Automatic annotation (TrEMBL):
Pfam families: HNH_4. Residues 16-86 form the HNH nuclease domain. SMART domains: HNHc. It comes from the Bacteria. Keywords: Endonuclease, Hydrolase, Nuclease. Residues 141-166 have a biased composition (Basic and acidic residues). Residues 141-175, 285-308 are annotated as: Disordered. Transmembrane segments: none annotated. This is HNH endonuclease. The keyword Hydrolase applies. GO terms for molecular function: endonuclease activity. InterPro entries: HNH_nuc (IPR003615), NA-targeting_endonuclease (IPR052892).
């Protein structure tokens, strides 16, 4: 059997001791040295299980079924080897050589265990005897040290997060006129827009109230802000005023429609009409009641400033 066909356990699953032993011994009978097909393999307890032999790798070896049947239940390996040689004169086994191999196996498995090398690590690094163990020892130690360093780093990061909890995220929604005023102030500082701030606050508040939950996302307004900045001051002001005064139940798409379909001349004319209406309102109120007019006149003057 060519080495390419030798058994290798799947590293994706939990590796059983039996599978590890078959891999370690390279599908070769520990006693006769014969490379075996899988259906000819038995995993043999060197000290029989019936006599208290443990199921650990240092007491398990690959055995040819034919040899294992002869040895089965016999705690005297030497006698089993003698009987085998009588029955198989062409396939002799050397008991003294087997004793040397057993000592080497026990030494290897003890050292592997002491170094904490798992079945998986042994298979991944091709460690199957003392020689390969010594060669890979530094590599395995380095891998374990790296793993420990990673674990320490994770612990440090966890502790850092615990000591410095993340700051609460900034409020993402505008929920009131006060929120909107603060937002507009911030936006004007970073991305100025040529429009009266009071009108802008009033307009955004109208948009907020078109939402069922009475909230509007900052990101929505920021996106619209970029679109508004492409129009002139007169067009923006006229569109927002029209929206607030006549169509406050509409959403932001409606305002953009006004901006796209209003030329500069029409916007200036509309704003002039607004200013004249505000002045006419002020004169009429002054004729009705001096005291009332004093207050409402100030409001009307503010009304005109509010939009123009």
């Amino acid at each position: 059997m060519s080495p390419s066909k030798l058994y290798k356990p799947s590293l994706g699953d939990k590796i059983a001791t039996k599978d590890y032993v078959i891999w370690r011994d390279k599908q070769t009978c520990f006693y006769t040295g014969k490379v075996l097909q899988r259906n000819d393999i038995e995993v043999d307890h060197i000290i029989p299980e019936s006599l208290g032999g443990p199921g650990t790798p240092d007491n398990l070896v690959v055995s040819w079924k034919k040899f294992n049947q002869l040895k089965s239940g016999n705690d005297n390996l030497e006698m089993a080897c003698q009987e085998w040689n009588k029955q198989n004169p062409l396939d002799q086994v050397d008991y003294e050589q087997i004793k040397v191999k057993l000592a080497a196996l026990k030494m290897f498995e003890r050292e592997r265990w002491e170094l904490g090398i798992t079945y998986r690590e042994a298979i991944e690094n091709e460690i199957y005897d003392t020689y390969t163990l010594r060669i890979a020892q530094d590599t395995i130690r380095g891998q374990k040290e790296k793993q420990k360093e990673k674990e320490k780093q994770k612990e440090k990061e966890k502790q850092k997060e615990k000591d410095n909890p993340p700051k609460k995220r900034a409020k993402e929604n505008l929920c009131s006129p006060e929120d909107i005023e603060s937002f507009v102030e911030s936006q004007m500082a970073s991305n100025p827009l040529s429009v009266n701030r009071k009108l802008l606050v009033k307009y955004i508040d109208c948009l907020r109230l078109t939402r069922k939950n009475g909230r509007i996302s900052k990101s929505i307004i920021q996106t619209e802000w970029e679109k508004w900045s492409k129009f002139s001051q007169a067009v923006i002001t006229y569109a927002m005023w029209t929206h607030v005064e006549k169509h406050d139940d509409k959403k932001e798409e409606y305002t953009l429609g006004i901006m796209r379909n209003t030329i500069e001349h029409e916007a200036n004319r509309g704003l002039l009409i607004l200013k004249n209406k505000s002045q006419a309102l002020t004169e009429e109120e002054m004729q009705n009641d001096v005291l009332s007019t004093s207050n409402e006149s100030n409001e009307s003057d503010e009304y005109a400033k509010y939009y123009i």
